[in-house]
Write a structure and sequence with these properties.
Blueprint: H1 2-8, H2 18-21, E1 24-28, H3 29-32, H4 36-44, E2 47-50, H5 59-69, E3 74-75, H6 94-103, E4 125-128, H7 130-133, E5 153-156, H8 163-170, H9 176-216, E6 236-241, E7 244-249
Parallel strand pairs: 1-2, 1-3
Antiparallel strand pairs: 4-5, 6-7
Helix pairs in contact: 5-6, 6-9, 8-9
C-alpha cells in the first residue's frame, strides 16, 4: 500500500504532466515482474526492476542515474525491504552510488568542480501507519482488502545537502567507498530526525482518531468530498527540479 498511498497525498495538479511530475520507483524484480501481465502493469506504473541482494552495480541503478540526468524524479526505498516497525534499519548504498556517478569523476580524472554541476535534489520522506492499513505477514502474504479509517502520517523533510561531502570526494580527500558510506550515513541521519517528528505527529493522529470514534462513531472517517485531510494549517512542502515546480501550502 505504501507507493500508491504516498503519492495519493499529492494534489491533483501534480498529475497534469506525468512525464515530469510522476515518480519512477525501484521495485523488487521478483515481486513486480514475475510474469508478462504483472510486468506490464508495473512497467506502465514506471517501476524499475531491481534485483535485491545484487549490490549497487546493476542495471536498475544505471537506469536511475540516466533518468535523473534527463530531469526525471526517482523514488527509492533506501532500506531495501519492507520494514513494518517504527525503527530504521540499515540503509543500502544505492543512493551513494547514484549521487557520486551523477556528479561525475574526481577533479584528478578530469571531472568538473561542484559549482559547475547541478546535482539532484534529495528529499527524505517518512511515513507511519501503512503497516496497519495493509500488513505483510511473515510468509509474505497480506490481506486482500486494506483496513479503512486507520491513521496515516506522511512527512516530507527538507532537502539533504551533499555539496561539501561531494567536494571532498572530487578533490580526492576521501575515497569512493568512504564517500558512499558518508552519503548513506547523512541520509540515515536525516531520516532519523524525520522519524522522530513523524512518531510525534502519528501519535497525535491516533489520539484524534480514538476521540473521533467515541464522538462520531466507527465510521467517523467518511467525510464529504473536499474535506481537508490535514488538521495543521502551517504544513508546507516545496519541490523544485529545473523547470518543474510544485508547491503544497496550507494543507
Amino acid at each position: 500500500a505504501d507507493d500508491p498511498l504516498l503519492w495519493g497525498a499529492l494534489p491533483w495538479r501534480c498529475y497534469k504532466d506525468p512525464t515530469k511530475t510522476i515518480r519512477y520507483a525501484l521495485g523488487a524484480q521478483e515481486l513486480c515482474y514475475p510474469n508478462k501481465p504483472v510486468a506490464a502493469f508495473f512497467r506502465f506504473g514506471q517501476i524499475v526492476p531491481i534485483i535485491r541482494g545484487n549490490g549497487i552495480y546493476q542495471p536498475a541503478i544505471d537506469k536511475s542515474i540516466d533518468l535523473l540526468r534527463t530531469g526525471k524524479w526517482v523514488h527509492i526505498f533506501p532500506e531495501g525491504k519492507i520494514n513494518q516497525t517504527d525503527q530504521l534499519i540499515r540503509l543500502k548504498w544505492g543512493v551513494g552510488r547514484i549521487l557520486m556517478e551523477y556528479g561525475g569523476p574526481t577533479l584528478a580524472m578530469g571531472g568538473k568542480p561542484m559549482d559547475q554541476i547541478e546535482m539532484p535534489i534529495v528529499i527524505p520522506i517518512y511515513h507511519l501507519g501503512m503497516e496497519d492499513i495493509l500488513r505483510l505477514y511473515p510468509d509474505n502474504s497480506s490481506p486482500v482488502f486494506p483496513k479503512l479509517g486507520m491513521p496515516l502520517t506522511i512527512v516530507f523533510g527538507e532537502p539533504i545537502d551533499f555539496t561539501s561531502l561531494m567536494q571532498e570526494y572530487k578533490e580526492g580527500k576521501i575515497q569512493e567507498i568512504e564517500a558512499r558510506v558518508k552519503i548513506t550515513e547523512r541520509v540515515f541521519d536525516a531520516m532519523e530526525e524525520l522519524r522522530k517528528a513523524t512518531l510525534k505527529l502519528h501519535k497525535e493522529q491516533e489520539d484524534r482518531a480514538k476521540q473521533d470514534r467515541i464522538k462520531k462513531g466507527y465510521w467517523w472517517w467518511i467525510q464529504p468530498v473536499g474535506w481537508g485531510w490535514w488538521s495543521s494549517s502551517d504544513v508546507k512542502l516545496e519541490v523544485t527540479h529545473r523547470d518543474t515546480s510544485v508547491k503544497i501550502e496550507e494543507l
